[in-house]
Amino acid sequence: AAPREDLPRFPIFSDLSRDAFVALTSAMALRRVNEGDVVLREGESGTSFYVVATGKLAVSKRDDRGEAVVLARLGEGDFFGEMALLSGAPRAATVISEEPCELLEFRPDALLGIAGKHPQLATSLRRFYRQRLLANAMATSPIFRPFPKADRKLIMERFRSREVADGEIVIHEGEPSDGLYVVLDGAVNVVKRRDAAEVLVSQLREGDLFGEMSCLRKAPASASVVVRRAGTLLRLPRKDFDDLVSTYPQILELVAELSEERAENLDAILSGHAQWTEEGLVLI
Ligand code: CMP
User: Fold this and answer.
1) Residue 132: CB within 6 Å of ligand 1?
2) Is the CB of 207 under 6 A from ligand 1?
3) Distance CA 51, CA 247 (A)
4) Is the Cβ–Cβ distance between 22 and 101 less than 8 Å?
5) Which tens digits make up the pLDDT trace of 49-97?
């Protein structure tokens, strides 16, 4: 049958030709969920992509204190699941239905195949992925949590993105850093020189912040940051960071807390009382 007039009411697919849209529908299943069902859970693996046909859902994520923060509400025409699909990382957030919903679930291979042939689709998915990742990093980070949402939006606009390659040194120990960074995708190692050797101090991944210590203290970086897995970083240039601090002096206290915790971890590692492993920081 011919597609109904209102079929591409899904903005994400609005640039697709009819043929591409039809090809995509053959890789799609209708999934009905009840109120309160968990469609995706943060931390789980999975790469299905969903478009909301009817109903409303809430997106939430745990912050550094383990508290669930509601990040967004999604309704008809919105989509989710693109983050794990594009990053290969576990689900970045939990999506729970707030009323009975009809979802279109797409197989990742089919969606990526179509996106490969339709650059606008690929570009929109990437754009949303970036915006959501940055918004989430800010919503769950102790540094940005206290800011009203509207202010966070303004700050977000000041971040610049930067592609980085494996092994690239982003911050050099002993030199001033050029801003506050957020890992958008990829991963970095924080390493510190000790005698002739280098000690792994921390491993950071999507959503983590770094560079705040030297920005805040206006001191040389206390450790180097080296790219472990190529990807994209976002940088809030130092000048913008300084402006932010003068507009919101509260940020100083919050950054100081984070710095203190990191400085304590660093001491523990350097004094041989702790070691960084795949599981995180382990006391020895
Ligand atoms: P994924 O990480 O695959 O699974 C959870 C999904 O929640 C994620 O992809 C996004 O599609 C969605 N999501 C995460 N953060 C936000 C946000 N801030 N606003 C809207 N949707 C989000």
Assistant:
1) yes
2) no
3) 39
4) no
5) 999 999 999 999 998 788 999 999 999 999 999 999 998 889 999 999 9
